[in-house]
Structures are given as structure tokens and as C-alpha cells.
Amino acid sequence: ADRSASRRPTRSASCAAPKRRASWQAGPISRRRAESVAAAIRRTEVEFPAEMVRCSVWPELDGEWRACNPDPTLAQWLLALKIEEGMVVDGSGEIAALQQGANGPLLHGGKLRRQGDCLIRTGRSGRTQCFI
Predict the structure, then answer these.
(1) What digits encode the pLDDT tens for the residues 113-127?
(2) Per the confidence metrics, is the pTM higher than 0.70?
(3) Are 124 and 110 in contact (CB under 8 A)?
(4) What angle do CA 37, 42, 43 make, to 5 degrees?
(5) Which residues of 56-68 are buried (b: 16+ CB within 10 A; e: fewer)?
(6) Is the distance from CB of 120 to CB of 106 less than 8 angstroms?
(7) How far does the chain reach from its first CA to its final CA, in angstroms?
């Protein structure tokens, strides 16, 4: 008897059809969308709330940053960042403050660092996103 036939993986009905994406995964983020979010952030003149203390502990992070090669599952807030004196306006227009972590600045729990002309964010999951 041929035993190799019994070792072949069987295709179940659940993997025959592609799964539907969640509404937040509607499709790939186009370069045009990423650029429009970055442009909107550049136009944003934000007055940061007085209770948020501004500091220039990390002046090397200041600037306008746009995500390099955004992946389709990248959240909108990560498409672009505008950092000024420790304050951040993200791609969805929300304001946040950089936090002091054990090994440097954190943004929403993810570590930020400069590498050459790029800004690198390593999220809590270990996923890395580059910004230019």
C-alpha cells in the first residue's frame, strides 16, 4: 500500500475561499493616500494643550516624517508624524507626547530612534516602521 497518499495535506473548505478583511483592512494604502495624510499634517498648525509639557530632550526626532513603503495593515495614525519639542501630531490628527522609556523615547508604547536620515519606530509587537 502507498502510505505517501495518506500523508498529503487535505484542503479544507475553510481555506478554499479567501477570508473577508475587517473594515479597517479595506485594502492597501496607496502612495497617494499616504502623501495626502502627510500633506494634511504639514498644514496643521497645532496649539498643544498647556497641560502637556513640551521639552526638547530629543531634538533629533523633530520634523515631519512620512512612512516608507506603508504596509496595507498599517494604521492611519502611523502614515505620518509631525514631531516638535516632544509633542506629536499623528496621521489621524491626534496629539500625543513622547514618553521617556528605559531605552529612549516612546510613542504609544513603541520605541523611537534615528538611524541616519530615517526615523525608526519599533512597536511593542516588535514590528518596525521606517519614516523619512
Answers:
(1) 999 999 999 999 999
(2) no
(3) yes
(4) 100
(5) eebeebeebbbbe
(6) no
(7) 61
DSSP 110: E
Residues with Cβ < 8 Å from 69, sequence gap 6 or more?
A: 130
Q: Tell me the one-letter amino acid at 30.
A: S
What is the per-residue pLDDT across 64-84, written as a single tens digit (0 to 9) for each? 999 998 888 899 999 999 999
Place of cell 519599533: 122
Cell numbers at 32, concatenated: 497617494
- Output the CA–CA distances (angstroms, integers) from residue 17 to 13, 20, 25, 27, in the order listed: 8, 9, 17, 17
Q: Do residues 80 and 74 touch, judged by C-beta distance below 8 A?
A: no
User: Based on C-alpha coordinates, what's the Rg of the chain?
Assistant: 20
Residues 6 or more apart whose CB falls under 8 angstroms from that of 63 comprise 82, 83, 119
